[in-house]
Structure formats: structure tokens, C-alpha cells
Amino acid sequence: MMGRESGMSPSPxxxxxxxxxxxxxxxxxVGTDGFVIVGLLPEIGRTLRVxxxxxxxxxxxxxxxxxxxxxxxxxxxxxxxxxRVMVAALVLLGAGxxxxxxxxxxxxxxxxxILAGAGAALFSGSAVATAAHLxxxxxxxxxxxxxxxxxxxxxxxxxxxxxxxxxxxxxxxAIWFVTAVVGAVAVAIAALLxxxxxxxxxxxxxxxxxxxxxxxxxxxxxxxxxxxxxxxxFTYMSAVFAPATGGDQSRLALLLLVFGIAATAGxxxxxxxxxxxxxxxxVIGATIGITAVFLLMLPTRESFVPVVIMHALSGVVSFSVxxxxxxxxxAHAPAGGAPLVTSLNTSTAYLGNFLSSIIGAVILATxxxxxxxxxxxxxxxxxxxxxxxxxxxxxxxxxxxxxxxxALASLD
Length: 412
Hints:
Blueprint: H1 16-48, H2 52-76, H3 82-102, H4 106-135, H5 140-169, H6 171-192, E1 196-197, H7 204-207, H8 214-235, H9 237-240, H10 242-245, H11 249-277, H12 279-300, H13 304-318, H14 322-330, H15 338-367, H16 373-395, H17 405-408, E2 410-411
Antiparallel strand pairs: 1-2
Helix pairs in contact: 1-2, 1-4, 1-5, 1-6, 2-4, 2-15, 3-4, 3-6, 4-5, 4-15, 5-6, 5-11, 5-14, 8-14, 8-15, 8-16, 11-12, 11-13, 11-14, 12-13, 12-14, 12-16, 14-15
């Protein structure tokens, strides 16, 4: 099915939009797989006869598997052609989903979410690095933004559609829906993606060397801080904005929809801005924007219309971070190291998501104040902005230099 793994592929920049669109659809499937479980948890809990908190561990299993396995899998598969890597990743994701839908045992379903998380982890970092190569240096930021737009579109379309399917036909039908999308993307990648290799022959130890690079670590810390900030109020949206929604699920769904649409727009705009002005400036502007929006949410959280407006602004600035951060970390990649460093960055974002749920739970349990999450999240975002500014100032305007071509790809 994968065809020949050798042969000439187009030069960077040639036909990149069409091929990147396939990767965007893959990112959409991966994002939907992660987000749709949240809306299906009550029904899954009833089916498996477990509590809501136990059912919630399905989300944690996916997220932790993603965070921990992403860099390792990128290193192990670094010598493979990208086409083979991404098809294999989608097969893992589809297999995990099939077990999730078919199993009636909680332990087996939990294990299946780990398998699905592994597939998602393997796909995402490779898709970003592949898109960066396909577009070439001048359009790299836009290509990365297109791929990450798939994740934000999963918030707008995938998760709500999957939740609706689950309500009408049962949660297993929603999982099969995602699996069908995954299968279609795998076929498209196998048929249409050129045979690109992004890695050079290297040992696993050599591929882990980016972790000793201070530049890489600084980018990762910014990603961690920013995503703890972003997901603190997002994860506990129903509690933070309860005064405005009154517990109405339709109002909460509208907030999610507005956030997702705005996040998609912000992500795409951030790619173009990163190409024009440099990704570090976009990250600084976005994290300062997150700080400001979260502080403005405090006096407006009791009125629904202002909350909707604030969510639109929050979506724009929140998802203006990940694309430029991927752009920044690729610049620090050694020869053949782009898949590893982008996987590290994506897994760090997922780790931030996981940590935000823990931090939020502790704050709610100890203080009982959901409003307190907003200024704490603003503090994390401000720290991310400060670290990015300090890094840029200490290293000068070349903080994010164009990566050498050999850092991104070598063709078969």
C-alpha cells in the first residue's frame, strides 16, 4: 500500500499546499480523537460501569502516552521515510480506536487509549516536520500553521460532530467515525505523499542530543508554561464561567464553538506573522495577549455576552503560540533532528495540558474558587512571555535563525 520508498520527490515549495492539506486532515483526525472522548465520558462511564472520575482516566491515558512517547517514537523512526512513519502512526491510532469501541472491559479500554495516544504522538511531530520541509524556508511558518490548524478545527467540527454522533447512535459509533477518518487519511498519505526522509543515520543517543541544547530547552519551557496557562481555564470552563452559563450545556457548547473558530483563525494568522516578523515576536505578543484576556475575564465572567467576546479573543491569542513555537524549535534542530524536536515540543504542549488539569484540581479542592484559575493562568502566560523576551534579548536578533537544510530533510 505504501508503494516505493525511494525515488525523487519534488523540491521544497513545489505543490506544498495540496500535500500539507492531507497532513492537516490527519491532524484533524488526531485532535478529534483526543477531544471527542471528553464529550462521551458520561456514556462511556455508564457502559463500562465506572465512575466519572475513572472514565476521565481515559483522557489522561491518551495525554500521558502522547507526552511520554512522542520524542521516543520520533527517535526510533527517524530513519524511516515520512510516508511510512505517518501511515504506521495512523494504523496504531486506528487499532487503538477499534479496541476502544469493541472492548467491554475498563482495563482494556484504558490500554487502548494508550495505544491510540502512541499513534497520535508518532503522527503529529512527523507531520509538522514534513510540512516544514514541503513548504521550503520562505513558507515554513504558514505550512506549520496549516497542520496545527487541523487540531484547532477538531475543536470546532470534530469534537462537536463526534459528540452528536455519540448521542444519537452511541459512543462506539463516534469512535468508529474517527477511525474511518483516520483510515481515509492513511490511504491518502500512502498514495500522494512523496518519499521524503527527514532523518540521517544516527543512533538513538545521538538523536536525543537536542535535549542537551539550551536553546531547545528554553523553547520547551515556554511551551510548557504557555499551555498550562491556556488549559487551566479551558479544562475547567464549566466551573470558571458558571455564573454566565448558569449550568446551561447549550451555552457552554457555544463557548467551545466560539473558542474553536477563533483559535483556528489565530493559528493561521500566527503562521503568516511568524514568516514576516519572526516567531519569537509572535510568541511574546500572544502570551501577553493571553495574560491580558484572562485578567479581563475576571470582572466579566458573570455576564454571558462579554464572556463570549472574551472567549473569541482567548481563542485567537491562545492558538497563536504552538505554530511559532514549532518554528522556533526547528531552528535549533541538528542534522536530521527536526522530527525529534517538533515531537518534543508537541509532547510538551500535551504535558502542559495534563499539568493544568492537576493544578486546577488542586486549586479547586483547596480554595473552592474557580475564579482564582484566571489570574494564576495569567501568571503562567506572563512567565512564558518574559522567558521568550529574555531569550531573544540574550541571544540577539538571530534567536531564531533559518535552520540549515540538512536539519530538515534529506530526500531518498
